[in-house]
Amino acid sequence: MMSDKEKNQVEDRTRRTFLRNSGFALGGIVIGGTVGSLLGTTDTKNESNVNTESGAPVANPNVALMFFYPEEYETTMAAAERIFPKNDLGPGAMELNAGIYIDHQLASQWGVNARDYTDGPFYKPEPTQGEQIKVLRKDLFRLGLKGLDNYSNENYQTNFADLEAAEQDEVLTAFEKGEGPSLSGVSTSDFFKLLRQLTIEGIYADPLYGGNKEMLGWQMRKYPGTYMSYVKEIKSDEFVELDQQSLHSHMGHS
Amino acid sequence: MAKKLPKVPVVIAGMGWAGSIIASELTKAGIKTVGLERGKERKMSDYLMVHDELRFQHREELMQDLSKETITSRNNQGMRALPMRHYGTFIVGDGLGGAGSHWNGQTYRFLPYDFEIKSLTEKRYGKNKIKPEYPLQDWGITYDEMEPYYDTFEKMSGISGETVELYGHRSNPYPTGPMLKTPVLEEFEKAAKKLGYNPYMMPSANLSENYTNPDGIARAACQYCAYCENFGCEYGAKADPVVTTIPVAQKTGNLDLRVHSNVTRILNDGTKATGVVYVDTFTGEEFEQPAEVVVLASYVFNNVRLLLNSGLGKPYNPDTGTGVIGKNYCYQVSSGYSTLYYNDREFNLYAGAGALGIEIPEFTGDNFDHTNENFLHGAGVRSTQYGNRPIANNNAPIGTPAWGEEFKNQSIKYANSVLQVKSQGASLPHRNNYLDLDPTYKDAYGMPLLRMTYDYTEQDRQLVKYISKITRAIAEEMGPDHIDTVGEQAPFNVNVDTNTHNTGGVIMGADPKDSAINSYQQMWDAENVFVVGASAFPHNSCFNPTGTLGALSYRAAEGIGRYLKEGGSLV
Question: Mind telling me which residue stretches traverse the membrane in this protein (chain A) (predicted)?
Answer without folding.
Answer: 21-40
